[in-house]
Write a structure and sequence with these properties.
Radius of gyration: 20 Å
Order of helices and strands: HEHEHEHEHEHEHEHEHHEHH
Strand content: 5-15%
Shape: globular
Oligomer: single chain
Largest sheet: 5 strands, parallel
Distance between the termini: 31 Å
């Protein structure tokens, strides 16, 4: 199976069937990544360029590892030292890259919509590794795979997404994906960090942590994204942790077998207690990191299949 679109820019364009196909293929790559021989040839002969205009540890490392394990030639561009800093526009950068004939372009950018703009100017497949407050599709997919493996299904679950939802592209992508897969979603946090438009998507909204977690199967915590805040959204970090930091007392209101998630990086003692983050019986945070490599392998594999099929049917240029 291939994806209908050339690019993976967000969850909004994916069907439930496409989501399931990505996760099913990722399961095969989980097994491969745990084997002594971790390499495949799905991207053999293809070139992957990673462009991160924002600093990243987990996402950039996992995309690089995913490409190399699939046999791609992987190049990481240091955007802090690129021509962008010399005044070159994003479109000019895209045209320059296009002239190098890459096959896969992985992009993270601080501005919403920038990755979509770049995708319109290149002939390769583009993967959105996070753009502003807009979307982070592969994070939502790896979260979905983690949930499915832990709970045995990815539908009809009660899922609480807690914390700084207003500034979170992770929350936006997860809300769309989990709704497509017929789950009941609750958004939990202070009113200043709960945008009203998310309630319009069919989510239940809570400002009381204990009420919001009551009976939930999955508790997904989010980082306070101070780099995207332009005002006083919380009184203090101490007060925020007191009311919205996940600890054993608050987690006790969720289902007894509820799992705890966090996309990272974690601020221990602010949005989550360290003992909860490290609890091997409840926390699946380390599993999320592992699933990230497999999901990104699956996404690039499917996009590459579509790209090859497209090129085989294209007229030959003279």
């Amino acid at each position: 199976m291939t994806l209908r679109a050339r690019h993976l820019l967000g969850i909004a364009t994916l069907t439930p069937g496409e989501i399931t196909a990505i996760l099913d293929l990722a399961e095969r790559y989980v097994a491969l990544n745990r084997a002594p021989q971790k390499h495949a040839d799905a991207l053999a002969g293809l070139t992957q360029i990673n462009m991160f205009f924002e600093t990243s540890t987990r996402t950039q490392a996992s995309f690089e590892l995913a490409g190399k394990r699939l046999g791609a030639d992987v190049m990481n561009m240091v955007m802090q030292a690129s021509s962008i800093k010399k005044g070159e526009t994003l479109i000019d950068t895209a045209l320059t890259l296009n002239a190098m004939h890459p096959d896969l372009l992985v992009v993270r950018h601080p501005h919403s919509g920038a990755v979509d703009l770049l995708a319109q100017k290149v002939n390769c497949a583009v993967l959105n590794a996070g753009d502003g407050r807009h979307e982070h599709p592969t994070q939502a997919l790896l979260d979905a795979l983690t949930i499915r493996r832990a709970k045995g299904r990815l539908h009809r679950l009660n899922i609480a997404i807690c914390g700084d939802i207003a500034h979170s592209r992770v929350a936006r992508s997860n809300i769309m994906l989990l709704h497509k897969m017929e789950n009941r979603l609750r958004l939990v946090g202070p009113a200043t960090l709960l945008p009203r438009d998310f309630a319009d998507l069919g989510c239940e909204v809570y400002t009381d942590m204990e009420e919001g977690l009551a009976g939930c199967d999955v508790v997904m915590m989010l980082r306070l994204q101070r780099e995207r805040m332009d005002g006083g959204f919380i009184p203090s970090e101490r007060e925020y942790y007191h009311r919205y930091g996940l600890n054993a007392e608050k987690l006790a209101h969720a289902a007894p077998d509820a799992i705890v998630m966090h996309p990272g990086p974690m601020n221990r003692g602010i949005e989550i207690d360290g003992a909860i983050a490290d609890d091997i019986n409840r926390s699946v945070i380390r599993e999320q990191v592992e699933m990230g490599v497999a999901v990104r392998m699956a996404a690039m594999d499917l996009l590459a299949q579509g790209l090859r099929a497209e090129r085989e049917t294209a007229p030959v240029e003279v």
